Amino acid sequence: MTPKVSIRGLYKIFGPNHVAMVDRVRGGMDKATLLDQHGHVLGLRDINVDMQPGEITVIMGLSGSGKSTLIRHLNRLIDPSAGEILVDGEDVMHLGTSALRGLRQKQMSMVFQKFALLPHKSVLENAQLPLSVQGASAELQASEGRKWLARVGLEGFEDHYPSQLSGGMQQRVGIARALTANTDIMLMDEAFSALDPLIRTDMQNLLLELQKELHKTIVFITHDLDEALKLADHLVILKDGAVVQQGEPQGILLNPCDPYIEDFVSDINRARVLRVRSVMRPLGEATYDSDITANSTLEDLIARSGGDTSRIYRVVEDGTPVGQLEMTDLFKALVPRVSESRQSVR
After folding, report:
1. 326 vs 216: CA distance, rounded Å
2. What is the pLDDT of residues 18-46, one digit of tens each?
3. Measured between alpha carbons, how far is 121 from 115 in angstroms, rounded to an integer?
4. CA distance 150 to 160
5. Measured between alpha carbons, how far is 299 from 322 in angstroms, rounded to an integer?
6. Residue 171 Cα distances to 32, 93, 106, angstroms
7. What is the DSSP string of 75-92?
8. pLDDT tens digits for range 293-326
């Protein structure tokens, strides 16, 4: 599959001589030394990520890891010090002013952490803003704005103003606005982090529901691992501006490649996050107690089994047997893997 977005050898260094500093970073200079000796700040180091069409790529890391800097490169709100950003095979660094404006208006939309609604405009006027900027007719603006507001659960609020809405409702307007733009790519920078936990869960569920229907290419930034594991088709974990590990989230959880990742995943409720498909074995000759779907969580199966470790389940996907799961394997998967180096330290 051809990636929708490809990032190749991306570096970002903040400072007046940032391009000249790239060779020093390539030569092994770390973030602290670059700042102490040259007064430049390392933002991103040699980022290589492919984002597939119709998938949610989640970029996560702690504060200062470079995740928000990275997403702002995709629509060139920030220009890199070195590297390529390819959208549908075209390097956005080669786009002129008009083409770049077209990229931002017609190929990428953005949902912000702080909602970024215009307070003097109604909910409908905010939702239809992308089409207004594109010069669409008033009738099309209104019909598309109303359609997407209804789709995110805000039918009847079109004439309200942002100050009259809760935080969760304001972010629904932000999502409706991004959908009204009708872009293939949606950029979401900490889009739910300002929301209360229950509202945040509702918004995550709404995003997954919309994604099943629309199959957008979504780039989602978060510092929350639970959120990342829930939303991601492809997970990219950053530390100090570099990719530590990336891949399918279940695989990262089961096989962390670095002590930093092990620490990240150590406190996760693995039963709630891990899926049966991630720990099943190939079909054998066993006698099965019953069938279980491949996408069920281990928590679902534990509840179903009543904790009976002797049970063996046949795993099915779309009605077809694809494997088997023994409860003993399930319980082994609940114990985080610890690397040999960390064991020796302990």
Report:
1. 36
2. 999 999 999 999 999 999 999 999 999 99
3. 14
4. 14
5. 20
6. 37, 31, 21
7. TTSS--SEEEEEETTEEG
8. 998 989 899 998 888 888 999 999 988 999 999 9
